[in-house]
């Protein structure tokens, strides 16, 4: 029967042309190499190598098997290397999701750095608009969740990232633009433009409006931050965004931002399964996240 060891032996023999040198490289005796050849030739009842030539030469049947060895052995070597990388957590798939839909602005540079050190890791992204992202983390549908909700869930670990302020963003011509501070009652007649997630997951509702028993007139959703800003700038409504996003568009003169009451502050976390923390590629990503500063 033809085995990988036979292919390795024939490939080495083709390079060296000598049973003795082949035996040295494979840490075998010359008689063991000769025995492997006889075993293979006996099984197929055909001669593979002309032993009397110097260096040894291959018969047509031997060349056919040698061609197979040249095709198969590199694939075997690559697969073994991949298995070793997987075993030591240096290769795999890292699926990310973020409840902070503006976070990719500061996350992308980190991903670029990460790819240079972990080129064997396949990066993938979930939309972040799923209704139960923590459950996706538990179920293994994602591997890391950027979130402001460190829910106490067995098997999930949270790494603190940074604190940000959620600010009201509005058109410079909006009636509330003259206010230094926004109070909840002032949003009763406003359309709130937000990302398409559950209302309870919106900072402005959960930490500002709901505690005051107030609701906006209506809520309009969009998945794109750029579209959200355009709607606000054209006075179709107001929005609440992290301070670093609000500041970016304020500098362009498209919108202005105001604090919500005495300030709505949120802590951002990276949530991962405890069972995956020991993987080298996960630990490497968490280490990069730990080095970031507030955008």
Can you offer a commentary on this structure?
The chain has 295 residues and is of the alpha/beta class. Helices cover 41% and strands 22% of the residues. Strand 1 (49-50) and strand 2 (57-58) form a beta hairpin. Helix 1 (4-16) crosses helix 2 and helix 1 crosses helix 4 (60-87).
Q: Helix count?
A: 10
Report the span from N to C terminus. Answer: 63 Å
Q: What is the spatial order of strands in the main beta sheet? A: 4-3-5-10-6-9
Query: Strand-residue fraction?
Result: 15-25%
What does the average pLDDT come to?
87
* Shape label: rod-shaped
Work out the radius of gyration.
Answer: 31 Å
Biggest beta-sheet profile: 6 strands, mixed
Number of strands: 10
Poorly predicted runs: none
Output the structural class.
alpha/beta
Which sequence of SSEs, written as H and E, runs from N to C? HHHEEHEHEHEEEHEHEHEH
What helical percentage do the residues reach?
Answer: 40-55%
Describe, in short, the structure shown.
The chain has about 300 residues and is α/β, with parallel strands linked by helices. About 40% of the residues lie in helices and about 20% in strands.
């Amino acid at each position: 029967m033809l085995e990988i060891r036979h292919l390795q032996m024939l490939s080495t023999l083709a390079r060296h042309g000598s049973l003795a040198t082949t035996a040295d490289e494979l840490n075998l005796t010359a008689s063991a190499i000769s025995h492997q050849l006889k075993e293979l030739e006996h099984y197929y009842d055909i001669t593979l190598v002309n032993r009397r030539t110097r260096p040894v030469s291959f018969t047509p049947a031997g060349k056919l098997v040698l061609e197979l060895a040249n095709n198969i052995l590199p694939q075997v070597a690559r697969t073994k290397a991949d298995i070793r990388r997987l075993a030591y957590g240096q290769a795999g798939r890292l699926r990310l999701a973020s409840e902070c839909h503006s976070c990719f602005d500061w996350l992308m540079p980190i991903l670029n750095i990460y790819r240079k050190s972990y080129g064997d890791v396949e990066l993938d992204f979930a939309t972040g608009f799923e209704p139960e992202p923590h459950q996706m983390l538990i179920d293994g549908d994602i591997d890391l969740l950027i979130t402001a909700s460190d829910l106490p869930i067995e098997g999930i670990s949270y790494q603190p990232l940074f604190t940000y302020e959620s600010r009201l963003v509005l058109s410079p011509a909006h009636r509330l633009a003259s206010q230094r501070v926004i109070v909840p009652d002032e949003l009763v007649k406003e359309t709130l433009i937000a990302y398409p997630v559950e209302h309870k997951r919106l900072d402005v509702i959960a930490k500002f409006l709901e505690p005051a028993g107030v609701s906006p007139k209506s809520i309009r959703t969009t998945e794109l931050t750029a579209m959200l800003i355009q709607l606000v700038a054209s006075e179709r409504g107001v929005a609440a965004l992290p301070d670093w996003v609000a500041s970016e568009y304020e500098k362009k003169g498209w919108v202005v931002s105001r604090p919500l009451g005495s300030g709505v502050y949120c802590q951002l976390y990276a949530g991962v399964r405890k069972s995956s923390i020991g993987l080298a590629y996960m630990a490497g990503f968490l280490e990069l996240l730990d080095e970031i500063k507030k955008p």
